[in-house]
Amino acid sequence: MNTNIALVLVLAPFLGFLINVFFGKSLGKSLSGIIGTLSVIVSFIATAYFFSGIAAQPEGIRISLFDWIQISNFNVDFGFQLDQLSILWLLFVTGIGSLIHLYSISYMHDDENMHKFFAYLNLFIFFMITLVIGSNLLVLFIGWEGVGLCSYLLIGFWHKNQEYNDAAKKAFIMNRIGDLGLLVGIFILGNLFSTLDYATLKTAMSGPISIFDYWMISLAAFALFIGACGKSAQIPLYTWLPDAMAGPTPVSALIHAATMVTAGIFMITRLNFLFDLTPDVQSIIAVVGAVTALVAATIGLVQNDIKKVLAYSTVSQLGLMFLALGLGAYEVAVFHVITHAFFKACLFLGSGSVIHALHGEQDMRNMGGLKKAMPITFATMLIASLAISGVPLFSGFFSKDEILLVAFHHNIPLWVVASVASIMTAFYMFRLMFLTFFQEFRGTAEQKHHLHESPSLITIPLIVLAILATIGGLISLPGNSWLNHYLIPILPKLATAEHHLGITEYILMAIAVVGGLVGIGMAYAKYIKQNTVPTEDAEITGFSKVLYNKYYVDEIYDAIFVKPINFLSRFFRDTVETGLSALVFGFGKVTNEISYQGKKIQNGSIGLYLFVFVLGLCAIVSYLFLAQ
Amino acid sequence: MSTILIIFCVLAAITLATAFLTIFSKNPIHSAIYLVICFFSIAGHYLLLNSQFLAIVHIIVYSGAIMILFLFTIMLMNLNEEREVHRPRITRLGAIVSFCLICLVLIAIFINSKPIVGEYVTTGEDYQSIKVLGKILLNEYMVPFEFASILLLVAMIGTVLLSKKEKLQK
Amino acid sequence: MNNILNHIGIENYIFLSVILFCIGVFGVLYRRNAIIVFMSIEIMLNAVNLLFVAFSTYHQDAQGQVFVFFSMAVAAAEVAVGLAILVSIFRNLGSITIDNLKNLKG
C-alpha cells in the first residue's frame, strides 16, 4: 500500500511530463496547464497522506523498489526513505510547486510553447522528488543531476535569445563543477563504508573511527560541500544564479528560490552524522556561508533589475542557511529553508506579476507608484518583505533570529557578519519596495495606461504564500518548537538540547529587530524623503560601480578559467591535432608509396611472369626436397 | 654395352636433338615437324619399356591429333619464316639462367635421393598389358575415367565457342 | 625374366627426363612466338610422362601408366582450348608475339 502511494507520489509528475511532451501541443494551452498542475497536486496529496501517518511511525517508511548495483560487498538498491526530513521537504516542494504551476497557467498564457513549459516544470518536480525521497546517495544523485538538467532547460526556455542560452549553459556547467565534488564525496564514502545507504552509513559512522578514516571522511565531507556549493550557489560557484534570472519568473520562483537551491542544504542535513564528525569542514562551511551572505548582500544594494535584487537576496539567505549548517544547527537551517521558501517564492511571483503588468519591463528605474494600480501584489510583496527583513512576528523574524542566536553562541565575528548582512537585506528589500510601488510612475505613458492588477490565477498563489509567510514562524517558536520535536529522529541531539530564553537571547533579538528597522529607515530616508532614483548605467562611478558590476567576478573567472581553456583548445586543435592527423595520414601515405613501388612488378609482360614461375618452382622444390 | 643400352642412347639422342631443334628453328612449321619426330622417339622409349598400349595411344593422340592441330593453326595464321622481334638481352639471360637453375635443382634432388633407389626387382607377372591396364582403369580409376570424358567434352565446347567469329558491331 | 632397367638403369631415364624438361622450360622463356611456347609446354609434359612410365617399370606397377593416360587426355584438351584462344588473339591483335599481351598490368 505504502509502496503504491509512494510510486504515485514520484511518478505523477513524470506522467504529467510525458503527457505534456507528447500530446501537449494538441491538448491546447489550458488543458496542458491543468494537467501539469493536477499532477503536482496529486503528489502533494500523497505527501499529505504520508505526513499524517508519520507521527504513528517515527522511524519512517523505507521502501526498496529493486536491487540496483551488486558488486561483491557493495550493494545499492533503488529505494525510497519517507522519514520526517524527506516528508517535510516534499510538503513544501509539492505545495509551493502546485501554487507555482497554478500561477504559470496564467503567466505563460501568451507563450506558444506553454505545454513544453509545463512538461519541463513537471519533469523538474519529478527529479526534485527523486532527490528528496531517495534512501541512498545514488538516488539523490539521479535527482541532483536531473534538477540541474531541468534548470538548464527552463532557464533557456526562450531559446531564441542567445544570452539566455548562455545563461543556461553557465548554470549547468557551474552545477557540473559542483557535481564533480559530489561524486568524489560519494566515491570516498562508498569506498570507506561499502555502502551509500543513509541508515547504514549512520550506523557505520557511530562506531570508532581511525585517524586515516578521519582524514578520508573530512575529505568526503569537503567534497560533498563543494557539490552543495554548486547547487546552492555559494562562493565561488554562485555566479550562475543571478544570470539564471533569464528564465521565466515562475522558474525563478520555483527552482532558484524554493526548491533546487535548497538541495545542498537537504543533502548536508541528511548527512548530518557525517558532518558532525568533521568540525574542520564545518568551520569552512560556516565561514563560506557567512562571507557569501555578506558579499551577495553588498552586490544586491545597487542592482536595478528587480529579479537580480531578488537573486542576490537568495544567494545571501542561502549563505545564512549554510552558516547555520556549519555551526551544527541543522534544524535552524531547515526552519530558515521553509520560511525562505515561502517569502522568497512570494517575492518572485509578485515581481513576476509586476513584470507581467508592465509587459516585460524589469528595470526598477522605470517603475514606481504601482501600489494603487496593483493592490494585491503590493500587499503580498509588502508582507514578504517584512518577513525577509526580520520584522517581529513574521516568519522570517523567527528563523533569522535563530541563526543569529546560534552564530553568537559559537563565534562572535560570524555573528557580526550575519547581522550586517541582515541589515543590508532589510535595506535593499525596502529599496525594491519603494522604487517599485511608491512615488510616481516613471515608465512610458503607454504602460501607465495599461496598468491593472493581475488575474486571479496569479494573485491567489500570492495571497496563499503571503499568509504562509506570516504564520510560518509558528512551527518553531523559541522555547516550544514543533519543528525541533518533529526532527528528533533525524537529528538525535535535539532531544537533549536545551533551549532556554535568557537575557542574552532577548537582547540579541532586540538588536536584530533594531537592525532591521534601521535598514528600513535608511531606505525610506533615501528613496522616499530624498526621492532619489538610481542613476543610469553609464553614470555609476566609484565603489558603486564595483558593486554594480558584481565585483567583476565574472570577468575574473573568464580570465582565469575560460581564456586559458580556450587557448588550450586552440593549441590542441592547431598543433596537436594536425600533428596527430599527419602521423595517422602518414601511415597511409607510406603504405601508398610502398604499394606504388610494388605495383611495378606487375608490368604485364608474360615473359617476366613465366620467369618468376620458374624461380618460384625452383624455390619450392628445393625447399621440399633439398632442405630436409 | 648391351644392345638395349645402345638403342636407348640412340633414342635419347634423337629426343634431345629434336627438342632442341624445335626451340631453335626459325620457321614454325619446321618446329612442328621436329616436334613430331620427338614424339615418335618418345613412343620408341615407351616400347622399350614394354608398354605397347601407351606407345600406340601416344602416337595417335600426340603425333596424330595434337600436332595436326598445331600445324593447322600455324597454317591458318600464315606464319612463315618470320623475323623475331629483337629480344632484349635480359630475357635471353633470364632464360639461360632459369634453364641452368632448374637443371641443377632437379639433378641435385636426384643425387640427394640416390641411396633410396634400390635393386631392380621383377615380379614376373604381367602388370602392364592391355588386359591388366583395362581392368585397373575401369575398376579403381572408374571415376577419373568418366571425368576425363567430361573434360574432353567441355574442351570441345569451349573451343567451338572461342573460335566463333565475333558479330560485327552495328 | 629380368627387369629391363637392369640393362639401362633408372638414373639414365631420370637424367633424360630432367634435361628434356629443362629444354622445355628454356623454350618457354626464350621464344617469343606463342605457338613455339605451346610446343615447349608439350615437351615438358612429355618429359614427365616418360618419367612416370619409367618408374612404373621400376615399381612393376601399372598405376604410373594410368596416370600417363590421364595426363595425355588433359594435354589434348589443353591444346585444343589453348589454340582456340590463340586464334582469337590472332584475330584481335594481328600477331602472335607474347610481347604484345601486356594489358594485365597493375
From TrEMBL, chain B:
Annotated family: Belongs to the complex I subunit 6 family.
Compartments, as annotated in UniProt: Cell membrane
Any matching Pfam family: Oxidored_q3
GO cellular component: plasma membrane
One Gene Ontology molecular-function label: NADH dehydrogenase (ubiquinone) activity
Functional note: NDH-1 shuttles electrons from NADH, via FMN and iron-sulfur (Fe-S) centers, to quinones in the respiratory chain. Couples the redox reaction to proton translocation (for every two electrons transferred, four hydrogen ions are translocated across the cytoplasmic membrane), and thus conserves the redox energy in a proton gradient.
Species name: Flavobacterium rhamnosiphilum
Top-rank EC class of the record's enzyme: translocase
Catalytic activity: a quinone + NADH + 5 H(+)(in) = a quinol + NAD(+) + 4 H(+)(out)
Gene3D superfamilies, A to Z: NADH-ubiquinone/plastoquinone oxidoreductase chain 6, subunit NuoJ
Protein name, per record: NADH-quinone oxidoreductase subunit J
EC identifiers of the protein: 7.1.1.-
InterPro entries on file: NADH_UbQ/plastoQ_OxRdtase_su6 (IPR001457), Nuo/plastoQ_OxRdtase_6_NuoJ (IPR042106)
PANTHER family membership: NADH-UBIQUINONE OXIDOREDUCTASE CHAIN 6
Domain of life: Bacteria
Keyword annotations: Cell membrane, Membrane, NAD, Quinone, Transmembrane, Transmembrane helix
Membrane topology: Multi-pass membrane protein
Transmembrane segments: 6-24, 31-49, 55-78, 90-111, 141-162
Automatic annotation (TrEMBL), chain C:
Keyword list, A-Z: Cell membrane, Membrane, NAD, Oxidoreductase, Quinone, Translocase, Transmembrane, Transmembrane helix, Transport
Localisation: Cell membrane; Membrane
Catalytic activity field: a quinone + NADH + 5 H(+)(in) = a quinol + NAD(+) + 4 H(+)(out)
Origin: domain of life: Bacteria
E.C. designation(s): 7.1.1.-
Residue intervals passing through the bilayer: 12-30, 35-55, 67-90
GO molecular-function term, one example from the UniProt record: quinone binding
Enzyme class: translocase
PANTHER family according to UniProt: NADH-UBIQUINONE OXIDOREDUCTASE CHAIN 4L, NADH-UBIQUINONE OXIDOREDUCTASE SUBUNIT ND4L
Protein name in UniProt: NADH-quinone oxidoreductase subunit K
